[in-house]
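W.,

You were right to be curious about this one. When I first looked at the sequence I had no strong expectations either way, so I just let the prediction run and decided to look at it fresh. Below is the sequence, 692 residues in total, followed by the output.
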Amino acid sequence: MLLTFFKRLYPASVLWILLSVPVITIAQSDTLSASLDEVVIRAYESSRPLKDVPAAVNHFNRGNLQMFGTGSIIAAVNTQPGARIEERSPGSYRVNIRGSSLRSPFGVRNVKVYYNNIPITDPGGITYLNQLGVYNFETLSIIKGPGSSVYGAGTGGVMLIGSLSENEPGGVTLEYSGGSYGYSNIFGSVATSNERYTGKVSFQHQSSDGFRDHSAMKRDVFSWSGRFKLSEKESLSTTFLYGNLFYETPGALTRTEFNINPRMSRPRAGAFPGAEGANASINQKQFIAGASYSLQLSSALESTTTLYGMFTDLRNPAIQNYAHSAEPHAGGRTVLSLNTGGEGSKLRLQVGTEWQQGFTSVSIFKNFAGRADSMQSADEIINRQGLVFAQAVTEIKNWTLTAGASVNFLRVNFERFAPASLGKQVKNFGNQIAPRIAILRKLGKLNVYSSVSRGFSPPTTSELLPTGGAVNLDLSAEHGTNYDLGLKGTVLKNLYADINLFYFGLTNTIVQRRTAGGGDYFINAGKTKQQGIESHLSYSIPIKDTWFKQGSVWLSHTLHDFHYADFRQLENDYSGNRMPGEPLHNISAGIQAETKSGFNGLVSYLYNDRIYLNDAGSAWASPFHIVSLKLGYTARLNKLLVRFSAGADNLLDQAYSLGNDVNGFNGRYYNTAAGRNYYAMITFQFGQGKSH
């Protein structure tokens, strides 16, 4: 029976890949895994080594995130298991953590995102992750599974982004890169660092003509991050970011259109114009400003308080209509931490609260060739979301026990003023309790852990007020319980392993539907059963007495066996069907090395299994294989550091879709990714080091 189970989950082609990749890679190395035993991350409000965190976490530093170039972080994030970033067109990101994108036609939903401790997920549940440039990511930690015990609403997971390193070197950086399909990227930054202040000011301009027709993109991001040491007991961190993003949306293709010409944009169909005729696009401006103040109240007691404000202006001419929204919101988060105990026994107690208030106005117009015409509706939405949480972490010799819980509430006030007032409507999701318990046992350099967490995820504003249907305030919040069992640490000399088994049961699952005009609407879909194995191995090759400076290799494998446990819609019973949008297998492997003379190289491979595209399981995207290559050289001339690199992505020129429209109307599922493409980059860094 066990053999039959593995044969079902691991077809011959996947087993061949898993067995052959280690043979190829065991003789090389990459910096992705360097010193993972020593990497310290901040997760669940504690700073601990990655291997000591009793949770499934993917972590990336600046080198990891930029190892595929500086166009985006997508390829880098997709090297690790269980979480991936999808791209429907250049600039249109969607985060998928253990199937969380099932309810996301675009953008980031059901995932809580923090940028420098600021919750940039708005109180309506939407995160505009695409507003950040690749240079805004100094570190990225992805917590997989519900993090509601500390971070509030969201069953998908949590993303923690930092834009400033603990040891930021002072200096000036200038960079230019260019490549296929009109790609161009210009970046400049000035960093200052001394005993009292560390800060960085940067600007990025990025543009591309796009691989498909009507898929151009332009992004400008200006940011400043600062850290001030006010006294021996006080510190202040500041964040400012302004982003201006424009990208065209070519629309999803049918299978026939995809086979005939995968580069085409959605054509005209009946009464609906094509993507180009509608000038379908996103024009998005966002402003973020915030500060975090930390105070050491005593040797054992510390408080950290964050306050921020954000504003987003979004204009979206689409095939069905023209939407304009203004989305200001503000909020704060405060945490009080008590550390007690001594050698052999430690206790960390934390209590905290988070509050967000949003005021959104949404106007829908008839779209006349990309211009707003007659008004169809005008809405005002006031969202108020908050949580109170408490957590205790006990360390006794080789054991760590974590217990925490949060109480959450969300209140949505909605009023439609045009074409006629419907009066004020209120939806409450209150007193939602989200507990988490985790235990970790240290076994030398290897740690074993297990956790149980419960989370909830209320519908977002875009789901309560969808583009393709009437107001739906009857949607219920999702609830799920997640069980994790894992091990991570060094299992052999220089071999780091992170293996996690999980089971996640979700009720009231929110799923997306599409209308003929490309609009979306949402329904609750009963229950899902999501189980899987996520594995990551990285091997750092000893470099003593060799001409290598550093090098290593990684191998990641994701097995996600996701099914509808109970899902009936009208006459259709989808119970037992595989959930769409998630491959059964995903494999990533790569080699990266740098010589003492300054040369470096990277070869990577990505395999993505078949993805079902609708609930019935009658349509799917074929498996694909992506091979990438990057070569570079670094030279130092006194205080000037020069880096040059060139690379190629999708060397096999695979025709594939990186971001599918699940349950697309009339079979419109496919958003074609770029074919074989090339890029080159040159970087100048002046005066790297501490400045006094």
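Here's what jumped out at me. Residues 2-689 form a domain with the Maltoporin; Chain A fold (CATH 2.40.170.20). And, maybe more interesting for your project: The radius of gyration is 24 Å.

Coffee later to discuss?

I.
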